[in-house]
Each structure stands twice: as structure tokens, then as C-alpha cells.
Amino acid sequence: MFRPRFFVGTNRIPTLQGYETVNDSLHEKYSRQILFAPIGEEGQRRLLASNVVIVGCGAIGAAAANLLTRAGVGSLRIIDRDFVEPSNLQRQTLFDEADALAALPKAIAAERKLRTINSSVSVEGVVADLSPQNAADRLAGFDLILDGTDNFETRFLINDFAVQNAKPWIYAAAVGSYGLTMTIRPGATPCLACLLETQQLGLEETCDTVGVLGPVVNLIASLEAAEAMKVLAGREDALHGRLISCDVWSGHFQSVHIARNPDCRACVHREFIYLDGEAQPHITMCGRDSVQIHERNRSLDLAVLKNRLSPTVSDVRQNEFLLRFRIPPYEMTVFSDGRAILKGTKDPAVARSLYARYIGG
User: Fold this and answer.
1) Catalytic residues
2) Phi, psi angle pair for 123, to nearest 5°
3) In which region does residue 236 sit, left (phi positive, over 0), alpha (psi from -120 to 50) or beta (all else)?
4) Are strands 169-175 and 178-184 parallel, antiparallel or unpaired?
5) Residue 90, phi then psi, degrees to nearest 5
6) What predicted TM-score, i.e. pTM, was given to this entire model?
7) Domains of the chain, residue spans
């Protein structure tokens, strides 16, 4: 059987022109994927020429990165600010005990593993906290953005960038046994602000307070990766255009059509407050080695928060005015209006990360 050959450039992001055909070795590597008619050789050629950025390499981000690397995306950038801990290994499939023992940054550990899985994919791990100041530099130039984050502040930042620059991205989240995902194509679908910004923030469930099951994060990552492959393979006609939610414990699955908000501040009025840095929680230094987070539009039930935190953190104390707990070497004090003081650091990124983990992003 005749299969035209091609040459792969090195040390560069591949372009579609560099993949006129799929050569013998790559045809063998991706043969089962090419046999799937909706992808075929043309779709595989497009995958090989694609480039993707994943923001966050926790459970969902790691699983999605694994799937897309095996599928043969041309170039993959992984942005994550965190490091591997033993508690990650129950669900974060790219990492092992050696990574946790060495406390490797997740982006670096993922880069190393993915290169051994598929050496023909260009993988770059970036140890960074995505922010309004660096979003354009970190996200520009990619065909697709995937959500592997753990907080809505970063998700709305991604949404602002994507809408402003007409870049598709895929929202994904999971906690407990429940997860959801939605593909967002600016100009063609509602955006994340349409879906979520009309909701009042309160106390949110997080993986560090109610736990999370490995099966749900892998399921959501698989749905996210499948949607990504449709976009990258040029098969937008196969996108379902709906919000998919599922609970692997109850067996409840749902597919919901989301309407665009006609008054959406992002995709209608093009007000990019997260990208402009106007919507982040205001953070100030508060005494020696302390950071204060001035969260906006949040109301907390401190008694409920105490019950939720008690199994996972130490020395939880609560009265009618505040709640205080320890996550060594830090101590956090939370007020009912969402404000918090973190003692033990001067780093705003650490404060935002711990707030998202225990109170909600």
C-alpha cells in the first residue's frame, strides 16, 4: 500500500504545511486512530500540526495532557504553579512516588513523563501562575486552550483572553464524584461568563474539603480531550455544543443546552475585567509575613465551613465573627464576608492558591 512520505522539522512548532501526508512510522503509531473514519489521515495530519496549551496540571490537566500526547498533537505547553505531593497520586495519573518525594513542579514532572510517552510531540512545561500580567505571553499562538485549573478566577481570565482573541477553549472541572465540561468557541457559542457570572458566590466545595474520585477526573478529561481532538482535527461539525455534567457515584449524566447571555459583559460588551486585572481579589500585605485577601461578592457560612474543614486541617476554631485553621506552616483566618488573612507568607500566589483550595476559587 502506497503512503506518501514527509519530513518533520525539529525544534519548532509544526505547521500544517509540514505535514502534507503521514509517513510510515507515524501511520503505524496512530493507525487505530486513523482507522476511525471521522479522523482519518487528514484529521491525523491536522493533529500533528496542532499546538495546545493546558492551564493547570492537576488531575484533569494531567489526564488530558496524557491523552493528547498519545493522540499526536504537534506541540503542547503545560502551565502550572504547583508541585507534586503524595495526596496527588490517587488521581493525577502522570505522577508517581518519586515525583512526590522530590517535590517536583508538576509542569516539569509532566514534561518529562510525556516526552517518554511520545517523543515526536514537542512538550514544554512552564512553572508559573497564570495572571493578567503574563496571560498574553503564555497563551498566545496556540490553536486551543484547555482548562486544568482549580479556581474560577483563572478560568475567567482564560475566558477573557479567549473571547478577546477569538480562540477556542474547553472548560472542565470536577469535585467529589461530580464533574462537568463545555467547549467554548467565541462568536459561535456562549462563553463562561454567560454560564456562571450571574450566580452568587458562596462557600464552594473543593477537592481539599470534600475530596475527589479518580474516575470522575479521568472521565471529564476524556470528554475534554475528545472535544479537543474534534477542534484540532478540523471536525467542528462533530462538536455537541452543550454543557455535559456527570456524577460517577450516582450514575447521573446530563447534557444541557446553554443560551448566550444577551447582556454578557465578556462576549457581548467585551469588558475583560479579569484580563485587565480589575476582578482579582484585592491582596494586600498585612503585618509581618501575612497576606490579606479581600474577596468580592462572597458570603460564607462559617459553621458549615468548620464542619467541612475539620476532617482535613488542624486546629479549626470558629466563633460568630471568624474561623481560623492551620495548614502548616500557614495559618488562615476567614471572615463571613469572604475576607481572609494568611499568616506565614508574603507571596500573593501562595495566598490565592490556598484560598482556592480550602474556601473555593
Assistant:
1) 207
2) -115, 130
3) alpha
4) antiparallel
5) -65, -25
6) 0.80
7) 50-256, 282-358
Output the CA torsion sign for 46, 49, 55, 58: positive
Q: Which tens digit of pLDDT belongs to each residue from 246-256?
A: 999 999 999 99
Q: Distance (Å, rounded) from C-alpha 111 to C-alpha 75?
A: 12
Beta bridge partners of 108: none
pLDDT at residue 356 in the model:
84
Closest CA to 173 of 71, 96, 58, 286: 58
Candidates 58, 71, 70, 68; CA nearest to 172 is 58
- The residue type of 172 is A
CATH class of 282-358: alpha beta
Q: Select from 233, 202, 212 the least CA-distant residue to 300.
A: 202
Is the domain 50-256 a CATH 2.40.50.140 member?
A: no
Between 245 and 1, where is the model more confident? 245
pLDDT band at 351 (very low <50, low <70, confident <90, very high): confident
User: What pLDDT score does 357 carry?
Assistant: 85
Beta-ladder partners of 145: 53, 169
Cα dist from 261 to 102, 129, 154, 195, whole Å: 47, 30, 21, 8
